[in-house]
Amino acid sequence: MTLLEFARGPGLQWALWIFLFGVLWRVVGAMYLLGTKDLSKFRSKHYVRDGLRAVLTRSAPAEAFEKKIRFQHLTGYAWHLALFISVLFFAPHILFFESVLGFGWPHLPNTVILVTAAIATATLIALLIRRATHPVQRLISNADDYISVLAVLMPLVSGILAFAHVGARYETLLAIHLLTVEFMLVWYPFSKLMHTFMTIPSRYQTGTFFGHRGVKA
């Protein structure tokens, strides 16, 4: 079995299973924590309104903090959007999703994908450097933060190299790209990358929690 065959076969299968069961475990665990009965007096019964308001208002930092974290705020949204485009609208990726989901969607030109992947990579590297050098961010960061950034960065870099056929034979570059993706999938449920699934539900829950007490979240 070659490295590419392993990456396309058992490596990918195990990574997907670990990812799916890990995410399910984290989501079910978070829902279980909500099972405690709240005995306090209801101040508001508009749960949906309070939850949605928190999702919308907490998607941007408070005005008092915006000046100090504007770089982090804007680059954060920029690299997430660039990554989203690169992953979901690259033709080979869509073929993979179609093989799993049973349906596909239109793809963007390769040039657009290459540009968005480069933007995501450059922005993520800039954020990594800022995290390592900024006195406050460096103080509050732990191993999870750095490993999670690298777990996302490696598939981007390896994907660009494979697309450009730079550094080794294409088969080797593709295998490395797949292995980095599989590492990210395995690491995903046990790291801060889970914010992909948890951010909106947690903000919604916070809104309903404070609304229950008559406080705007």
Give the helix/strand layout.
Layout: H1 3-8, H2 10-33, H3 47-57, H4 63-88, H5 91-101, H6 110-133, H7 135-140, H8 143-164, H9 170-187, H10 195-212
The global form is: globular
Q: Architecture, according to CATH?
A: Up-down Bundle
Helical residues, percent: over 70%
Order of helices and strands: HHHHHHHHHH
Q: Give the helix tally.
A: 10
Write down the CATH topology. Answer: Fumarate Reductase Cytochrome B subunit
Explain what you see:
With 217 residues, the protein is an all-alpha fold. The protein has a single domain, classed as Fumarate Reductase Cytochrome B subunit. Helix content is 76%, strand content 0%. It is built from 10 helices and no strands. It is globular. The mean pLDDT is 87.
What labels describe this entry?
76% helix, single chain, 217 residues, mainly alpha, Fumarate Reductase Cytochrome B subunit
How would you summarize this macromolecular structure in one to three sentences?
The chain has 217 residues and is mostly helical. Helix content is 76%, strand content 0%.
